Amino acid sequence: MPVTQEEVLTALRECYDPEIPVNIVDLGLIYEVRVHPSDEANGAGDHVEVEMTLTAPGCPASGHITDQVKQRLLRMPGVGDARIELVWYPQWTPERLSADARKQLGID
To answer: Residue 9, Cβ neighbours under 10 Å: how many?
Structure first.
């Protein structure tokens, strides 16, 4: 059974920007998740692609965050490969924060 986008997002809620105590999904850093089912003959597992951004282009933790995301995806049952693409458009803004993130950060 292929991995679902919701399962990917649930797993990514365990990943954090080390400077902000909110997971990267609720921060609004994940723009797109694509799951490409594996060829069942090779049994390698699904290929997951994540398009994401960071809160700022010069984020010193960019390598740490993208590595954390990839490693978390590769630990998921059924995932054989993962690719992370950092994008800068659209630019991240605080409007992308989820209601839970806003509450956690004391914004609302």
So the answer is: 15
Distance CA 38, CA 21 (A): 35
- Cα separation, 28 vs 96, in Å, equals 5
* Mean pLDDT of the residues in the chain: 93
| Phi, psi (degrees; rounded to nearest 5) at 12 | -70, -15
For helices 62-74 and 5-12, the axis angle rounded to 10 degrees is 130
Instruction: Please identify, in words, the CATH class of the domain defined by 5-95.
Output: alpha beta
Give the C-alpha separation, 24 to 9, whole Å.
9
Nearest in space to 55 (alpha carbons), one of 78, 24, 77: 24
Is the pLDDT at 40 greater than 70? The verdict is no
